[in-house]
Design a protein that fits this description.
Length: 181
């Protein structure tokens, strides 16, 4: 009997079901992330090693340049120190030249020694500055006295107590001067 019932159910027309047609929604493409390039691990390692190599090369180049500058500066500083140690001899010879003496040979000997010392200093690139009548420059001169003078203009050197010395732009000793107001 169950067979008969099943056959009848199949033969009886079923009432059509009302189905609404749902419009088919087209599949939208989901926006994918931009394709990420797969990085080859060997290429990544090569780039890292290359970058490290370039950095080491740049550091070495900077080190080389810095040592060249330091070497040149140390030579200049050594020369300035040597000149600074000789300056008391210059000062003593200058004082000896300014003293009155009746011995002409003695005076001539001191002049020759002073001229030779000045020649040696000039050959080393030493410039002597600080003359009476020069304009006062606080970067070169050390004003230890001021004088009110109608004969001299303002900020003009009236008297020099010690000459100044410089090598290039480096001041070895400032000139000690008296300045007119």
């Amino acid at each position: 009997m169950a067979k008969k019932e099943k056959q009848q159910e199949e033969k009886t027309p079923q009432t059509p079901e009302v189905t609404e047609e749902i419009p088919e929604i087209p599949e939208t493409e989901t926006p994918e992330a931009p394709e990420t390039e797969q990085v080859n691990p060997w290429e990544e390692k090569y780039n890292a090693e290359r970058d490290a190599h370039l950095r080491v090369a740049a550091e070495f180049d900077n080190f080389r340049k810095r040592t060249v500058k330091e070497k040149e500066a140390s030579y200049g500083n050594g020369k300035a120190d040597a000149v600074a140690k000789i300056l008391p001899v210059y000062d003593n010879l200058e004082r000896a030249l300014n003293q009155e003496t009746s011995d002409a040979a003695y005076k001539k000997g001191v002049e020759m020694t002073m001229n030779e010392l000045v020649k040696i200093l000039n050959s080393l690139g030493v410039e002597i500055f600080g003359e009476i009548g020069d304009a006062f420059d606080p970067n070169l001169h050390n004003a230890v006295m001021h004088i009110d003078s109608e004969e001299l203009e303002e900020n003009v050197i009236a008297q020099v107590f010690q000459k100044g010395f410089k090598i290039g732009d480096k001041i070895v000793r400032f000139a000690m001067v008296q300045v007119a107001n």
